[in-house]
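Provenance and format

Records in this collection were gathered into a single text stream. Each protein contributes a sequence line and a C-alpha cell line. The two records reproduced below are adjacent in the stream.
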Amino acid sequence: MGRLAKAIGTARAAAERTENGFVMDILIIDDHAATREEMASLLDAEDDLVVTGQAADGEEGVRLARQLRPDVVVMDVVMPGMNGIAATRAVRAAEPDTAVLALSNHTGASLVAALLRAGARGYVRKDRAYEELIPAIRAVAEGKQYIGGALSE
C-alpha cells in the first residue's frame, strides 16, 4: 500500500497542495526555534514539500524520525546533547530510506566529510539556505549528493 499518511492533518495538507503529485515529508532538526520556523515557512510555500515535524535537539529528532519516517531530514550539525553527526548516524540506522541533509554555519571540509561518513547525503551552509535548501532537498530525496556553498579548511 506504500507509505501511509503520518497524520490526518498531513494527509489533508498534501491533498490540498497537489492533486496527483508526490509530496515529500520533511523533518527539521535545529536547536534554534526561529531557524526552524523560517525553514518551515520557506519549505511549506512549495507545493511538493510538507514539514511534518520539528525537533529542537538530536535525541528528539531521532525519535521523531522513527515515528514520522520522513523522506528528508534537514539536520543542524551543532546542537546541545546529541550533535548532528551522531543524530545523522542514528536516523540513517533507524530509517535507511530517509535522506539527511546537514545544515551548518561551519564550513570545514573535514566536517562535511564526517557528515557524509555518518550517512548524510548533502550539506548546505546556513548562510546559503534560502538559495540552496529547496534544490538540495530535492537532490538528496532523489538519492543524489548535494554539497553547497564554499568550504574552508
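Adjacent record:
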Amino acid sequence: MHKYNVWPATRVRAASLMAASILIGAVLSGCAGRSPDPVAVVQPTDHMLDCTAIYAEAESNNKKITDLGGEQGAKVAQNVAAGVAGIFIWPLWFAMDLQGTAGKEIEALQSRQNYLATLAGQKECAQPLVTIAEPEEKAAPPKKLNSKGE
C-alpha cells in the first residue's frame, strides 16, 4: 500500500458532499409550501345550523377566502422570483410552490358557501346570504364637473 493514500480522504469528501446535498434538498423542499386542507362542503352538524349560525359561518368563510387570495398572490410572486433566480441558482427551483394550496382551499370554501346559500334558502332565512367572496374591482373615481356642470 502506498504511503500517502488519498482514496479515504476523497471518499470522506464525497460522502460529506452527498450528505450536504440531501440536507439542502430536504430543507428546500420543506419551503415549497403547505399541503392543501380544503373544507368539506357538507359537514355532519349542518342540519343543526340556524340562520344566525349560517350567516356567521358565511361571514367567516368570506374572510378566509379574502385571506387565501392574498396568500395565493404572494405564492405566485414567490414562484416567479424563484423561477427567475433559479436560472442562475438552480436549487431555488425547489422553493417553488406547485401545489396550488390556496387555490384548492378557495374552491372548497366557495363550494361550501354555495351549499350554505342553499341551506339558508331551505330554512327560509330572511337576510340574503352573500355566497362567494370575490376580489372586488375598484370603481372608477367620479368625474369632476367643470363650472358648466359638464
